[in-house]
Design a protein that fits this description.
By secondary structure, the protein is α+β, with helices and mostly antiparallel strands. The protein has 2 helices and 5 strands; from the N terminus they run ββαββαβ. The termini are close together.
C-alpha cells in the first residue's frame, strides 16, 4: 500500500478507483469513504480515477473496498 505519514501524524493514501466519470461519481465515492472511522479528508478525481484519502491512521483496505463498492465502483488498488 502506498501511504505517507506527514508531520501531524496524518496518513495520506492514494487509491485507484475504476468507473468514475463525472462529479456525481466523485461525490458518491467521497461520501462513502468519508464515513470510514478516522478519515479526515477525501478528494476524488474522475478524470484520473485517483482518490486521495487523509486519515488519522492507516485504513483497512477491505473497509475502503467495501465503501467504494457501496458507491457502485471498483477499487483497483493503490496508486
Amino acid at each position: 500500500m502506498t501511504a505517507q505519514t506527514d508531520t501531524s501524524g496524518s496518513v495520506t493514501t492514494v487509491y485507484q478507483v475504476s468507473g468514475m466519470s463525472c462529479g456525481h461519481c466523485e461525490g458518491a465515492v467521497s461520501g462513502e469513504i468519508s464515513e470510514i472511522a478516522g478519515v479526515t479528508s477525501v478528494k476524488a478525481v474522475a478524470s484520473t480515477g485517483e482518490v486521495t484519502v487523509v486519515s488519522a491512521a492507516p485504513l483497512d483496505e477491505e473497509a475502503v473496498r467495501a465503501a467504494v463498492d457501496e458507491a457502485g465502483f471498483e477499487l483497483a488498488g493503490t496508486a
